[in-house]
Every structure is written in C-alpha cells, then in structure tokens.
Amino acid sequence: MTSAGAANAGTLKIYADTNFKGLIGTYADKAGSYVLSAANRGVMSSFKNDTSRWVAFYKGANFNGGCFPSEPNHHAASFYLWDDNSMSSFRIGNVGC
C-alpha cells in the first residue's frame, strides 16, 4: 500500500460535489450513526468508503427515507440522479437498507 493509500485507510470521506470535491467530513472505521449538520444535509454528491464496514446513507435526518448502501472499500464519484444532493444521515457498521 502506498503512503497515500495508508493515509486514507480506515476512513469514510463524504463530499458535497461529484468527483470527490468539497470535503464535508471524515469518519473513522467505527460502527456508529451520524446525522449531518443542517448546513450539510441534502448536499452530499460523492464518497470514499475506505473502511472495512458497510455504510448506509439515508435521505432523512432520522435514518429514514430512501437509502443508498455502500460496501466496504468502495468509492462513488457520484450518486444516481435521484439520490444526488439528498442524503442527510448515515450508519457505519453491519447495516443495510
């Protein structure tokens, strides 16, 4: 693994724009539930899941509404049109939609 890869190992990074631009936050490879701040709800457009865990992204701030799953070690440069700019909360761990 390169040093750049090692620096990203074990993190989930979410971005406001497609192609991994506009970093919103970085989260450790630890099971948990997270609600984005009011300013960041509904703006997420891409992510890098470099964790060993599944992640479930939800449209609603209370882990409800539509859901988009991510398997471990998966990068998405964009969401489907109907999911783009709509995620408000997410769970890291053994979760699914």
C-alpha end-to-end distance: 31 Å
Strand content: 35-45%
Helix content range of the residues, please?
under 10%
Per the principal axes of the C-alpha atoms, what is the gross shape? Answer: globular
Count of distinct strands: 8
Architecture, according to CATH? Sandwich
CATH superfamily: Crystallins
Mean of all residue-level pLDDT scores: 86
Number of domains: 1
Cα gyration radius (Å): 12 Å
**The top level CATH class name:** Mainly Beta
Give the low-confidence spans: 1-5
Structure description:
The chain is mostly beta strands and 97 residues long. The protein has one domain: Gamma-B Crystallin, domain 1 (Sandwich), CATH 2.60.20.10. Helices cover 6% and strands 41% of the residues. The protein has one helix and eight strands. The strands form two sheets. The chain has a four-stranded antiparallel beta sheet, with no helix packed on it. A four-stranded antiparallel beta sheet has the order 3-8-5-6, with no helix packed on it. A hairpin with an 8-residue loop joins strand 5 and strand 6. It is globular, with a radius of gyration of 12 Å. It starts with a helix and ends with a strand. The N terminus is likely disordered.
Could you give a quick summary of the protein structure above?
The chain is mainly beta.
Search tags:
97 residues, four-stranded antiparallel β-sheet, disordered N terminus, 1 helix, Gamma-B Crystallin, domain 1, 8 strands, mainly beta
Write the layout of secondary structure elements.
Elements: H1 3-8, E1 11-17, E2 21-28, E3 32-35, E4 46-49, E5 54-58, E6 67-70, E7 74-76, E8 89-93
Antiparallel strand pairs: 1-2, 1-4, 3-8, 4-7, 5-6, 5-8
